[in-house]
Design goal:
The chain is of the alpha/beta class. It is about 15% helix and about 25% strand. The radius of gyration is 27 Å and the shape is flat. The chain starts with a helix and ends with a helix.
């Protein structure tokens, strides 16, 4: 691919020779020859251009390459967005053979669309539907009557439960679980957790837990991505829903009956308890915990490690435990760091007052 073609795809400003042939994008430190495109948009990578053998590079607007090092370069505005477009141009698709592998099991009445690839040891349940050009790489399980849209990519080990619905262009990473039963149990009489919530004391007696079956399902909108080893539980009676274009990281847990809006980002090890609603464009940082029956408003950002047990209004930025607005959280942290010195000063004053 010519450097000029990349410039057109990125809507970037081309400086120098646009006829340079490019084989791959690389960090400047990994460049091996003149056909490598050095990605030098960040300061650390930019410094490496001085010793890189690359003839072409991508730079951030407002910067100039070291004198005499490059024959052509591209200038871009938003570096990370440019990175996404470059890696799309040079994508390396997952290897998957055409057709259905002989070891795959296809249940009766299943509908397999045009151009679908089903790899080794996959199982597609009865009456399930697989949309056109979707790929099941290997060892994927699709439950009975599940429906998968077109152009989806399901990585090895992913489990799609019965009656689960996936939209178009959904990506499930390795060992994602979509549609397991919810964590739902009840006791014949008031349980200890319920009594603690109501009275603040543990007054309930010991009782056997009774299972509440999950007969609902899960629906993922178009362009949703779910990371490796993440779990989205089916609803008890209704549906657990994940909105269009939401991105879910590895090791994320979403409980039964949850509704997650569009364009949300849920980072690694975050957890959302049952019957919680997340609005559109909500961001959960790593290891955020959200309690059950909570509503998080649109455009809210919860910083990593926050624990949320109450409703949060739209456009909130909350940090820490307890979760506070950013300025308050930082002030609290600063004051806590001053406590040691404050105690020393109070002790000194006490001695002076007591005449010691």
């Amino acid at each position: 691919m010519k450097l000029s073609d990349i410039a057109t795809a990125l809507n970037a400003r081309l400086v120098g020779d646009g006829a340079i042939e490019i084989d791959r994008p690389v960090n400047p430190a990994d460049a091996e020859g003149p056909r490598d495109l050095a990605l030098a948009m960040e300061p650390g990578a930019f410094e490496l251009l001085k010793s890189s053998p690359a003839r072409a590079a991508v730079l951030r607007e407002g910067t100039e390459p070291p004198a005499g090092r490059l024959e052509g370069y591209l200038l871009v505005g938003r570096a990370r967005y440019a990175m996404a477009r470059i890696l799309e141009l040079f994508d390396r698709p997952v290897h998957a053979e055409p057709g259905v592998h002989p070891s795959a099991v296809i249940g009766p009445g299943a509908e397999i669309g045009r151009g679908v690839r089903i790899g080794p040891h996959c199982v597609v349940g009865p009456r399930a539907r697989i949309g056109a050009r979707t790929t099941l790489v290997a060892q994927v399980t699709v439950g009975a009557e599940a429906a998968i849209g077109e152009d989806c990519l399901i990585h090895p080990g992913a489990r799609i439960g019965e009656r689960v619905v996936l939209g178009h262009r959904v990506i499930l990473q390795n060992n994602a679980s979509i549609g397991a039963d919810g964590f739902s149990f009840v006791t014949p009489e008031l349980a200890s957790v319920e009594s603690a919530k109501e009275t603040g004391a543990l007054t309930a007696k010991v009782q056997d837990l009774v299972r509440i079956n999950s007969i609902g399902t899960v629906v993922l909108g178009d362009d949703v991505e779910v990371g490796a080893n993440s779990c989205i539980d089916r609803g008890t009676v209704s549906t657990t829903r994940i909105g269009r274009n939401t991105k879910i990281d590895d090791l994320v847990m979403i409980g039964h009956n949850c509704v997650v809006g569009e364009n949300c980002m849920l980072c690694g090890q975050s957890g959302v308890a049952g019957s919680t609603v997340l609005g559109d464009r909500v961001v959960l940082g790593a290891r955020v915990g959200v309690g059950d029956h909570v509503t998080i408003g649109n455009d809210t950002v919860l910083a990593g490690g926050a624990l949320i047990g109450h409703n949060v209004p739209p456009r909130s930025l909350l940090v820490g435990i307890p979760p506070l607005p950013r300025a308050e959280a930082y002030e609290l942290h600063r004051n806590m760091r001053r406590l040691g010195r404050l105690f020393e000063e109070v002790a000194a004053l006490k001695k002076r007052v007591e005449g010691k």
